[in-house]
Amino acid sequence: MKIEQLSIFLENKKGRMRNALDVLSDGGFNIRALSIADTSDFGILRLIVPEPGKAKEILEENNFVVKMGYVIAVEMSDQPGGLGTILGILDDSDINLDYLYAFVDEKEERAIVLLHPENIDAGIEVLQKGGATIIPPEDVYEW
Predict the structure, then answer these.
(1) Which of 48, 49, 90, 143 has the fewest CB atoms nearer than 10 Å to its CB?
(2) What InterPro entries would the database entry show (predicted)?
(3) Could you tell me if 140 and 73 are in contact, meaning their C-beta atoms sit under 8 angstroms apart?
(4) Looking at residues 3-19, what average pLDDT do you find?
(5) pLDDT over 90 for what percent of the chain?
(6) pTM summary value
(7) pLDDT digits (tens, 9 = 90+) for 114-136
(8) DSSP-assigned letter for residue 49
(9) Using CA atoms, how far apart are residues 86 and 48, in angstroms rounded to an integer?
(10) Count of alpha carbons within 13 Å of 63, Cβ hemisphere only?
(11) Distance between CA 120 and CA 124 in Å, rounded?
């Protein structure tokens, strides 16, 4: 139930994010979800793409520093409080989140949150026990 995620470290320079995205585009990779966090010196571009291992290779061949990690994809209600319900399941079990990002899957008419708890396996366990719908990797890569 873990989703592989690419974290691309980018210098905080004009055009650097576009360069990374162009490399992926030229390689035929369709980005399923993304998030960016930045500091004054660098940014971290987090991406979900089909075939993340191949995407990592192509990026590294083009001089990008890339780390593979995992997130959990969880369906949530697309209404006020939907995210709060999911976060409540984690909070009630003392599971801390490092970060999250979310989007709406209009095709399936659902909202999705990608979660990175400190302990991925514990996060999956409590979410399942709490009744959350965890989305498998094959579904995520086909959005």
Answers:
(1) 143
(2) ACT-like_dom_sf, ACT_dom, ACT_dom_pair
(3) yes
(4) 93
(5) 76
(6) 0.89
(7) 999 999 999 999 999 999 999 99
(8) -
(9) 21
(10) 3
(11) 6
Band of residue 138 on the pLDDT scale cut at 50, 70, 90: confident
Q: Is 73 helix (H, G, I), strand (E, B) or coil?
A: strand
Spell out the residues 6+ positions from residue 4 whose beta carbon is closer than 8 angstroms to its own: 48, 52, 53, 68, 69, 70, 137
Q: How many Cβ atoms sit within 10 Å of the Cβ of residue 28?
A: 11
Q: Distances in Å between the alpha carbon of 142 and those of 18, 22, 78, 88?
A: 23, 20, 20, 28
Q: CA 105, 111, 115: angle at the middle one, nearest 5? A: 110
Fold of 71-141: Alpha-Beta Plaits (3.30.70)
Q: Which helix (H) or strand (E) holds 27?
A: none
Domain 2-68: assigned CATH number: 3.30.2130.10
Q: What is the DSSP string of 119-135?
A: SHHHHHHHHHHTT-EEP
Nearest to 68 by CA among 55, 77, 81, 78: 55
